Amino acid sequence: MLLMTPLIAELERLYKGAEIDIVAEGTLAADVFATFFSVKNIYCLPRRGFKHPVSFLGLISRIRRTHYDLIIDPCFGSGFSRTLARIFKGRYKLGFGEPEASASFTHLVPQTMAPSHMAQRPVALVRWHASPAQQEGQGFPMMDIRLTDGERACGKAVLRELLAEQLQHQARCTIGIFADATGNKRYPQAWWDEFLATLEEQSPECALVEIVPMQGRSMLGSRWPSYYSTSIRRMGAVMSAVDLMISADCGVMHLAVASQVPTMGLFSVTDAKTYGPYGSRNSSLRTRNMSGQEVARHVMRTFPDLFAAPGLPLKEASPATTLADVVELAGRIQSALGS
């Protein structure tokens, strides 16, 4: 759902005043698109719908009563998504695939024309449909759940309370850490210990806060202030208040990006070209065979305005040293002018 937010932004740009219905599996779509002005209806199909046939078929029947101007199947290879797009009623039906693959679609775009990134594919799809000749040179909308000013203010207030002690010592920046992921995308705790020890050693002025995963248990031994919520919007609001989020490839990484916070995504297995954070102040790193220390130093080099330079912590620089350098430079300039 987070990866679909650029599609809605592009539809709003192309079709001013359009009313958009979203059909999704599970309930999270209602939270993701809660503040999208153009979204009229959000239909949340029950997960494993055929185990709940009455509610599932009843909702499908309700959606079929609407005759849409345009139906979009934005997915690669999803038989369920393709089936829904076929049975819903619409003047035009748009998706990826070869033209001869589905007679029920009015417009099919070969997958070879799609961008690498999953969030950008549906944007390119609707651009091809609206104006094939005007795709070159256009950037892509950012992922964005459109947090309200009130949500952001609440997130800042929560973060201030979490970091009250650290902020008293004039923290240079606040770094959010999400240390969970599924399967072999997850880094072991010893790796995170090395990573965070390096950050603390090189930039002790940075305050750390852990975003706790859905099981409600710290992945870092409860060594730092932490925040937990079952609401993705509240979690996004708190993350939006930090200066940088660091996360392995997972849904929370996408949520951080969609909350408009600078995000560093760490990729040990999956392809960063397909799933990595994109846009200004976002970055990704392929970490295979890299130690936690090496990754930490890379992160600090990527965001030099937030961290001290690796090998030269800010604590080693003092006002006296800086003043001496200035006096010495002034003397050199004066001598040069005199000669």
TrEMBL record:
InterPro entries, A to Z: Glyco_trans_9, LPS_LOS_Heptosyltrfase
SUPFAM superfamilies: UDP-Glycosyltransferase/glycogen phosphorylase
Superkingdom per UniProt: Bacteria
Keywords assigned: Glycosyltransferase, Transferase
Cleaved signal peptide residues: none
Protein name: Lipopolysaccharide heptosyltransferase family protein
